[in-house]
Amino acid sequence: MVQTVSRKRARSPSLEGKGKLAKGKVTKEERDLESLVFGVQSEEEEVSSEEEEEQEVLETDIVPFLEDATAQDTELDEGAPLFYEDNVNEIDPTTESDQEDTSESEGESEDDSAWRDKEITGELQVSLTSRPRLKKLREREGEDMITGDEYEKRLRQQHEKLHPKPSWAVKAEEKVIEEEAKGDEEEDPMSILTSSASALSSTHTTLPSGTLDIERLRDANVQARSSGKSSMVRFHPEARVLAVGGSDRVIRLFRVDGRENAQIQSLTIKDFALHDMTFSPSGTTLYLTGRRAHFYTLDLETGKLEKTPFIRQDQKKRVIDRLIPSPDGQWLASPAAGGAVDIISTSTKRWVREVKINSGVIDLAWGSVSGKLWVIGSDSVVYGFKHMTKSLTWRCVRRWRDIGGFSPTTLAISHNERWFATGSTSGIVHLYRAEDTEGEGVHKVGPAREFLNLTTPIGMLSFAPGDEILIMASRTKRDQLRLVHVASKTVFSNWPTQTTPLGRVMAVDAASQAGFLAIASHTGKVLLYRMKHYAIKQ
After folding, report:
1. Pick from 480, 478, 527: nearest CA to 215
2. Residues pairing with 53 in the sheet
């Protein structure tokens, strides 16, 4: 059903030199073993210094997201498969006529997986004094000859010591985009991206206002475009992976590099039209909803797809419209009718409680710092709920509303919880300082800034990782997308332009690394841009 795609290239620091050995001569058997085990190509291709060599990172195209879980799939009525691998709409990127203005992609060589030959390694004798750098493999002073098996074992131990595996998957970083990398610079995503906000704030200077340095890259879904409109885009919280969903009920995963944007896998959910999808904060799970009385969870480590009926404690079924995970990954919040928000446990996938407001629920969001659940109602009041661990209840701890009142459509909270933003049916977006929302009762708050750049109902409102950019967009008309510089509370004046091919924006998302911005269009394309300020430099 689902296949794991993995390409690895490893070059051990103990195998490489400066073109000539310091002393001794490498035998053919040693070169064979190096090539077989670690894919070493030739001494001419090796790097020129030990310091550079020790900083190289094992490069893998993508984590083993999806293993074959056919036996675990939930079947539909009459034995129909729940999802299947879909390759119908794959497009040869070389035939795309509309990609002239995007960056050129470069092919990458694909090495075979490492393997070992017991006959060769068992008989081989390796001298640890034949090269100065092999002395690092010695376990005691004066040690010299070891067997091929022991040589291989120590090489692996040395490599794993320099490059430990991440906690949930074997993960590595691909080559960064040619303009920023200047060749083969590599980066460790786990050390840089401990969290999206801290990574950006600690690595980069403050984003300047006025104009945005942005470039268009190859479409994110150029390898497999949706047969209908692409209505959902979600970046993985850690890896450079983009999930795309559309009206054709197909979910496609792409490895985003700005050049090839290779498709990793595609799944078709057959028993409902996809309405929303989101990754868990840890990135191990993808939640899928389709306006039905059930939802799906896709375990990206095991490939297991699980169908979960949604039944409340009173045995009443409710349609699941969206699932919004809490920052700690403990809860899922789902807006419901009658001013209710259902709270679901991620561990049991069962309903645990509901919170209610005094009007219909319009939108909701979690506070990344406080863990509070914020809900905006049709009466323009924003409610803040806190989980009380002792009583296992949710208590409303704050209420506030705009001083002028409006018809809300969206709610967004910055990752550092210093800013709130709301969108309205008229296209107006308000930006509020969080400190101004504090007060007794239904506290009235005036916006720090009002944006009148859009004229149709705001359907998308979010803070990009780092909280320096507020993204606002509408699905109703063409080209309805703007980016706000939060610190100066001004809209970037140079982008998008009249020639930016946005079409009707169906979804938009910003990646937690490398400044990627994905925009889903009604044409089925997913435009990919890079904000150069966030290019990760080594």
Report:
1. 527
2. none
* Matching residue, tokens 């905006």: 376
> Any bridge partners for residue 337, and if so which?
none
Residue 27 and residue 34 in contact, taking contact as beta carbons nearer than 8 Å: no
Concatenated DSSP letters of 50-77: HHHHHH---EESS-------GGGPPP-G
- What does the alpha-carbon distance between residue 219 and residue 527 come to, in Å, rounded to a whole number? 5
Nearest Cα neighbor of 343 from 369, 320, 368 is 320
Closest listed residue to residue 177, CA positions, set 112, 233, 243, 102: 102
Cα–Cα distance, 482 to 291 (Å, whole number): 29
What is the C-alpha to C-alpha distance for residues 215 and 347, in angstroms, rounded to an integer? Answer: 41
Helix (H) or strand (E) holding 441: none
Cβ atoms of 152 and 116 within 8 Å: the answer is yes
Which pairing describes strands 393-402 and 442-445: parallel, antiparallel, or unpaired?
Answer: parallel
How far apart are the C-alpha atoms of 90 and 223, rounded to whole Å?
Answer: 6
User: What is the secondary structure of 24-39 as a DSSP string?
Assistant: S---HHHHHHHHHHH-
Q: Residue 273: pLDDT above 70?
A: yes
Write the CA distances from 55 to 185, 191, 199, 283, 432, integer angstroms.
Answer: 10, 13, 20, 26, 44
- Assigned CATH topology for domain 214-534: Methylamine Dehydrogenase; Chain H (2.130.10)
DSSP line for 480-521:
-EEEEETTTTEE-SSSS-TT----SEEEEEE-SSTTEEEEEE
- pTM given for the model: 0.65
pLDDT in tens, 152-163: 888 877 777 766
Provide φ and ψ at 270, rounded to 5°: -95, -20
pLDDT band at 407 (very low <50, low <70, confident <90, very high): very high
Q: For residue range 347-382, list pLDDT tens digits in order.
A: 999 999 999 999 999 999 999 999 999 999 999 999
Partner residues linked to 529 by β-bridges: 216, 517
What are the structural domain ranges in the chain? 1-56+108-168, 214-534
Indicate if the pLDDT at residue 51 is higher than 50. Answer: no
Q: CA 148, 149, 151, 153: dihedral to nearest 10 degrees?
A: 160
- Please, how many CA atoms are within 13 Å of residue 490, restricted to the half-sphere of its CB? 11
3-state secondary structure of 267: strand
pLDDT bucket at 170, cuts 50 / 70 / 90: very low
Range of weakest confidence among 33-37, 91-95, 227-231, 452-456: 91-95
Contacts of 273 (CB under 8 A, 6+ apart): 247, 249, 290, 291
265: which strand partners? 253
* pLDDT number for residue 270: 84
Q: Measured between alpha carbons, how far is 275 from 480 in angstroms, rounded to an integer?
A: 21
